[in-house]
């Protein structure tokens, strides 16, 4: 390895191919574009009154991750000098000792570039997780959760799979671009956060549908584009394995999309665009651990199996009574698990070796490497259990801190997270009120956290819900004057 002590006249670029570096730089930018893609996808899937809030939490989570990854995240996730099998050390704290070093992931690119590329992976995973706040979660506790989740959940998972001494890497697990850290990490964490957060108010869910399918489609296309950098770039060079990963990514996504649409048609006798988007994303998820490992014909089969598994996986939240509002578990956790298990069956040694580096890979069951199947299953079980338990503990501990409770009030949920948490709106036309006639009186000063607000609602059932909540609340002590909000509420009753 190139030493980290060098002078200003040393050319640190000499060991590296400029084309490979350019390819990973472009791939990094492509993966970054997935974050607004997730924001648009989640926004479109929600109701109009919480559409902006989901864009905010996704984009702000990126801000949190950039700081966390620079501060200690990269070092904890991918340190090359840690000797344990579970988490890295602080050798690269603040990006120390990365400038001229070979990357631990590949000798083709420098560590400075590798750390930047891997940051996008952590950011995409965090963006997927914060979708669990949908329509009833307060945003600042969600951001605090993101920092500690990245440190205690994502970093260990990434080290297991890709760290120089990670136990999963040494065990022989085949996880090409993140079935464990990214897909199981996001889907299972979102399920755990949703469990701690609690279900949305059932009375507010009548006739619920995604509010903007155009935004869902835009988000899906941005994700698809970024995923080619996600999976193609995980070959860490402009080589045949990258090209194969891109091919397999598209094959899996499109066969999963067709499968999902057919399954939805059998029930509704209509061709759903939301179904196409959901199927596409589930296929992209399954391709994440498998696209640089299996053959194209196996990718076609993977797309069909994933479309079926993830489509029926949307029922799991009803069995568990956990309100995973955006189906993060069904698409990401289940899709990632299917892709990882496919590696155990269909991993091909000659596909893995297309990068010119991993020329002695063992392959999977069809390569007569039979133990690869139980290696993959053991990894899935370990990653799933660790992720759910630790994510739930982090969420619950934050929820117990005064002022950091995860859940917004019933009135805030009815009003919408856009109004309650942000005071801005995805759609705010002149003289056209949100939720038909719903409105909150304007204030010169920002309300204190927890202030009781009585909004006026044009939907009779919603106004009745507010009135019943208000009637059950303890009365204001007589020694205290009525607040401005209560006066406004009284005048509107």
TrEMBL record:
Membrane topology: Multi-pass membrane protein
Database matches in SUPFAM superfamilies: Ammonium transporter
Record-linked Gene3D superfamilies: Ammonium transporter AmtB like domains
Superkingdom of this protein's organism: Eukaryota
Cellular component GO terms held in the UniProt record: plasma membrane
Record-stated family: Belongs to the ammonia transporter channel (TC 1.A.11.2) family.
Protein's organism: Podospora australis
GO molecular function: ammonium channel activity
Chief localization: membrane
Stretches that traverse the bilayer: 22-42, 54-72, 112-132, 139-162, 182-198, 210-230, 242-263, 270-288, 294-312, 333-353, 373-398
All residue ranges annotated as the Ammonium transporter AmtB-like domain in the record: 23-427
Official protein name in the record: Ammonium transporter
Biased composition annotated in UniProt, kind: Basic and acidic residues: 482-493
Alphabetical UniProt keywords: Ammonia transport, Membrane, Transmembrane, Transmembrane helix, Transport
Pfam families xrefs: Ammonium_transp
Keyword Metal-binding recorded: no
Subcellular localization: Cell membrane; Membrane
Disordered: region residues: 447-493
